[in-house]
């Protein structure tokens, strides 16, 4: 890690608080120390995630809901939507000038890939978090008993939307630190974890090295969760995204078993029934391990670290994948949009839609 040239060390740590802050329970800290023993290794869990934040008048940066974008543009789109909500609130209180400023800023985000924007005296930015998992002899760490989880009535029922984001409303204070105990030790470990040369493209390694110098501090966000499968002695995630709670991750795995597996593998009715029973077991038992048809699945705990520098939390890096442009970005070379109706879906697509609709109907009836 490259040392900072700034003489003021205050930005080397970060404080994480919430609007209604709750102290860490003794159980959570005990479990965190146990995790260090049983899952001693920490590995990168795919690519980073992105969210939006605004600077508070009293200091620090408050995170917006749904800190789960897989590319910076996902966070920009969310920020544009947030600004439009602020415009609506300004209109409701009769402040048409503020409403116009918010709408103008949202319009810029629709056209330009901006990672920071100011509206009057308010500052907003896109924030980057690196993801990690703990590994042990038996594989990746599952959820802990102290991890907040959706109620039993949520699992396998209701709509297909995720739970509330546990990071929403948390405030990153660059100049203070309150993450102690096992969380503080983990934070220091993850800050030292850089993308190794030769394991990633050169620009990714170089950006990782530069970030250690420009944003030497950091804070841990609440953990998120994903489903993983063991194949040939190795574990691989089922998707690039993560869920807010273990229950949401189980719901995603159940959806995979009821919809994606039958569609991808063109299963017969009898073969589908095996996976449907496994998904039912997942819903009923709320388990974090599941074996079905010779396959082994696990719900995995994912840590998130936001690097922090003198000016606040780190934003996107030049090497971060950002494949989709802003929704209204205009490419002069692009042809005009085709107004003709979309083609009829083929048989395979119709089968997928039927499976998904069957699952949606099942959940709404519970």
Automatic annotation (TrEMBL):
Basic and acidic residues bias: start-end ranges: 357-366
Region (Disordered), start-end ranges: 1-21, 134-166, 309-366
Stored Pfam families: DUF5954
InterPro entries reported in the protein's UniProt record: DUF5954
Transmembrane feature ranges: none
Name this protein carries in UniProt: DUF5954 family protein
